[in-house]
Amino acid sequence: MIGLEHYLVLTGILFSIGIVGVIRRTNLLMLFFSTEILLNAVNIGFAAVSKYYGDLNGQIFSFFIIAIAASEVAVGLGLLVLWYKKEGTIDLTSLQMMKG
User: Which residues partner with 27 through β-bridges?
Assistant: First the structure.
């Protein structure tokens, strides 16, 4: 039987993968993917604890996180496309050489 501990271990593993992705990536698109992994790990944790305690607050909070993450992706990808059109690359090193 799958219990709360299994979901929390999965949450920890996904969160660790997301943190490593945020720290190690220089590609902005992969950075966005890593932040999405982080947010989804938190959502799994909230939903699992909410189900375990029989309270809907964690699931409702997860729903709001999903809505905010969707808007973040929409705005972030729009900015990413503009940056790619301007610079021809989406590496973080190109952001360090911004001209004022």
Answer: 91
**pLDDT tens digits for range 3-51:** 999 999 999 999 999 999 999 988 888 888 999 999 999 999 999 999 9
C-alpha span between 29 and 81 (Å, rounded): 10
Report yes or no on 11 lying in a domain. yes
- CATH of residue 58's domain is 1.10.287.3510
pLDDT in tens, 47-90: 999 999 999 999 999 999 999 988 888 898 898 888 889 888 88
Bridge partner residues of 91 (DSSP): 27
In a domain, 95, yes or no: no
**pTM higher than 0.70:** yes
Nearest residue to 28 (alpha-carbon basis) of 70, 83, 74: 83
The tokens for 70 are 């969707």
Q: Is 94 part of any domain?
A: no
Domain that includes residue 15, residue range: 4-89
